[in-house]
Amino acid sequence: MTNFLVENINHIKNLSRSEFESLYEFTQVLNTASGQESLIEDAIDIVIKVINAERGLFVKYDDLTDTFAIISARRISNESITDLHQFSSGILQKVIKEKKPLLYHDVMSDPNLSQFESVQIHRIKSVIGVPIVRDQKVWGVIVADSQLDRREFTEENLLFLSFFSNLVSLALDRILKMEELEKENQILLNRLQSTEEVPEMIGYSPVIRNLAQLIHKVAQTDATVLITGESGTGKEVVAKAIHALSKRKEKPFLAQFCGSIPDSLLESELFGYKRGAFTGANVDKQGLLEAADNGTFFLDEIADISQALQAKMLRVLENREIIRLGDVKVKKIDVRMIAATNKDLQHLVKSGEFREDLYYRLNVFPIKMPPLRERRDDIPILAAHFVRKISGKDIPIDTAAIKKLEAHYWPGNVRQLINVMQRALILCDSNKIYVDHIILEEEKSLENFNGTLGEFEVLLLKKRLEQFNGNRTLTAKSLDVSVRWIQLKLKELGIQ
Ligand SMILES: Nc1ncnc2c1ncn2[C@@H]1O[C@H](COP(=O)(O)OP(=O)(O)OP(=O)(O)O)[C@@H](O)[C@H]1O
Ligand SMILES: [Mg+2]
User: Fold this and answer.
1) Could you say which DSSP state residue 234 is in?
2) Which residues neighbour ligand 2 (ion) by CB within 5 Å?
3) Which ligand is nearest to the Cα of residue 411, counting in written order?
4) Are residues 402 and 383 in contact, defined by beta-carbon separation less than 8 angstroms?
5) What is the pLDDT of residues 236-293, one digit of tens each?
6) Ligand 2 center to residue 336 CA distance, Å?
7) Which option is the CATH number for 3-180: 3.40.50.300, 3.90.1300.10, 3.30.450.40, 3.40.50.2300?
8) Alpha-carbon 332 to chain mean position
């Protein structure tokens, strides 16, 4: 038998039928209390009801500092709270010591208590203190007073309150444990969100970590997301991640690149068509938006769509409705929309090129991708990541090479970094990537080359090697030189 039962079995035996029934009622009240506060409120009400008191108070006890704090009060004005608190401090001390309910009769004639103003003003005759215990310590005390001299309140009645006090303590224990667990759970969830990676998105910089949190949050909703950012910053990576982290992950993720595609083609791709809608439409065809039903649709480069298509897209975003070309039937679709652009949509709205209403429909949850140069901390791990991904090996990158990567402006962002690492891998011969293997094409490109003949030779050689994935035989053939010449040249350049 649990301690609780052993302690209380005798109390139960001594309860009258009506007390027992009241207790049964109280247990139900206490069991439904979902938080500390509601439990305390309910408990005060019950004590007031049982002893027919006029006023009630709950004080929390801090055993470390041996102090009390008033948490809740009933029918007590603010001014008399301090007074009541003072006069009841003797009672509180005693309750804490004995850990059981105590009742004082005839308070007015007790010289220790009658000096208090509230006792005189409110003509208090009796006071009761009921402890609420947690982990064998008094956690708080319910104090109630009455203008009646409750001499009829016997020791047996106190037993009832004692039993009640134990029940409240049990309920409190349950609630506090629950509250602690909830808090812990919240902290853990939060921690998970902040460290949990976004699929395919590498980066530990504060910007990327914030972004990861945002992505995790928005993925849980169906909100339309507008991803903006320079070319190669990972807009598509984010769109896919939102889908993969959402409840739609098992459903399709479909994307349509909207840049530089003839309007009619784009429209039939997105909306589908009915047979006979135009020459060549021999069968009914479902559009991508329809095919993405229950899933996610990614409108890539949304800034490039025509005014006519903008109006049609507005309808999709507003009503989730589509009409196939040449059809009259309206179809409902359930699709989460994500759009991306590297253009300044707001600017396009101002110049009248992009519909304002569509812009607001898209910009429900904006995500701005930072350019790589604004998160240079991530460059070393990104570089190492791509080396591993491309070569399948962990090829070390020399410090000077890393420095060069970190110092670059990266107009092409992550995509450009991938290209640079790919080139470096071809040139490095699987040993180690040195600074010479890092070729940043902005410095020297074949188109607007204005260097010396020797430099041109080197540049052309590197480009061809890159083109043929480092294959020296093919490179030699394309340059109409011998493989030996290539080997010598590379040796001369310090490229292994
Ligand atoms: N944080 C990242 N971690 C790993 N790979 C990344 C990251 N960001 C981008 N990439 C990679 O960089 C390349 C470019 O990313 P993505 O296509 O998503 O960019 P984008 O913003 O859509 O570019 P664009 O505007 O040119 O379409 C992809 O190969 C992608 O996998
Ligand atoms: Mg893209």
Assistant:
1) S
2) 235-236
3) 1
4) yes
5) 999 999 999 999 999 999 999 998 788 999 999 999 999 998 888 898 999 999 999 9
6) 18
7) 3.30.450.40
8) 31
